[in-house]
Amino acid sequence: MQVKKYFIVLSLFSAITTFTITAQNHILEGRVVDASNGNPVEFANLGVVDSFLGDATDNNGFFSLVVPNDAIKKTIRISAVGYRPKEFQISKLLAQTKPEIELFPTVYDIDEVDVEAPSRVLYGMLKMVGRLIPDNYYSDNYVAKIDYLETTENGKRIMHLDYADHSGYGIRSRINAFENRAYQIVKGTRNFQFLPFEKGLHRIDELLGFDIIRNPGNILDDAFVDRFEVFEERQYKRNGQDIIVIGFENLNALFEFTGDARIERVEGEIHVIKEDMSILKHHTVYHSDGKFLHGRSFMTDESLQQSVKPVTQYTVDVEYNGSIEGKKVISRVFMEEQSPEKNSSFELLFSGFDSEQGPEKLNGRQYYDNRSVYSKDF
Q: Where does residue 212 rank: exposed (0-12), middle (13-18), buried (19+ CB within 10 A)?
């Protein structure tokens, strides 16, 4: 009897909790179409006025936006290149079942066509790239091999590692990326001694942090994309696929979307495959006024300023040519660190991709290199 009573109370608590969580958010779904012919309007922008909430329609004009309870009285603005924008009160759209919103074609002045209109399409494409990450990238356990290549003022180092990602690209959060990625050094070669201790540390976590698909807080986030200037650089074909290169720039970079408080400006380009709206690769330049001696992922205060080394910029290239079961995964990260005195380079090369089948998972990280063999001839 006591067990039954406990079960009823637990069920009631679960129901109340579920209702409370659900009541905090609303799902606004619908479709945007051309009022003149009923055709879908792809990559239309939906933005909640005076907030960072937003979405973009897909290739068929459909959208799905999570609206917090405190935003239902706000206004949503819907716009697309070649159409007159419309605004609605969110509460009125939520009262309808998957509303179909009609946009009327319009004619722009030449200045708007050259600058404003094309850029809105690019913002919509970048939002769509972020939205389709679970569809285009492998979202389950997988393992791989990594070759780590390092060239610094200390010398050269090559390490071979076992790597595992226990959730893949299914969950896009920094906590998940940290807790679910693991690597262990298997062997390696270097031509310098580990004195002092810090020289035995590597930069693998820093390199993994440049994976903008796996990590949030960058131009693929709805909350940040509008803070960048975007523009089309060029288009080309690769293996029969149409690629559009979207350039971007932010002249006032913030820690919240760079992960580095010393970054002052960010610029680069993203190569997007138009067929499935996935990223083939991205090239990014981070302009900095220095770094902590253990790498750019460390924060410093005034007491540690003597440990800050001068750095002009980081030039980063990330590629996504790996594949598991037809889904993309990261295949290469290259970073060149430029300073007034010298340049250093660091690279990760991924291979041997496979879904994780073994009974035991690879866990943890090996931050200190105690596997590489010292060789003067290397």
A: buried
3-state secondary structure of 286: strand
Which residues lie below 8 Å from residue 147, measured CB to CB, with a gap of 6+?
A: 158, 159, 160, 161, 347, 348, 349, 351
**Quick one: how many helices (H) and strands (E) in the chain?**
8, 22
Query: Of all residues in the chain, what percent are helix, strand and coil, respectively (each to 5)?
Result: 25, 40, 35
Read off the CATH number of the domain in which 70 is found: 2.60.40.1120
Residues 83 and 214 in one domain: no
Measured distance CA(98)–CA(84) in Å, rounded: 21
Q: State yes or no: pLDDT of 316 exceeds 90.
A: yes
Q: Do residues 179 and 84 both lie within one domain?
A: no
Within a 10 A sphere around the Cβ of 302, how many other Cβ atoms? Answer: 6
- Residue 366 φ then ψ, to 5°: -115, 95
Domain assignment present for 206 = yes
Q: Is 115 a member of any domain?
A: no
CA–CA dist 87, 81 (Å, integer):
15
For residue 83, give its domain range: 2-107
CA distance 184 to 357: 18
Q: Which of 320, 325, 226 is nearest to 273 (CA)?
A: 320
Q: What is the DSSP string of 158-172?
A: EEEEEEEESSGGGS-
Report how far apart, in Å, the C-alpha atoms of 75 and of each of 65, 67, 322, 345 are: 13, 11, 42, 48
> Residue 131 domain-assigned?
no
Residue 295's pLDDT is 59
- On the question of pLDDT at 293 being above 70, the answer is no
Is residue 112 in some structural domain? no
The answer to whether residue 281 scores a pLDDT higher than 80 is: yes
Tokens of 21: 């969580």
CA end-to-end span of the chain: 75
Among the candidates 107, 129, 155, a domain finishes at 107
Shared-domain flag, residues 97 and 194: no
pTM, two decimals, is 0.71
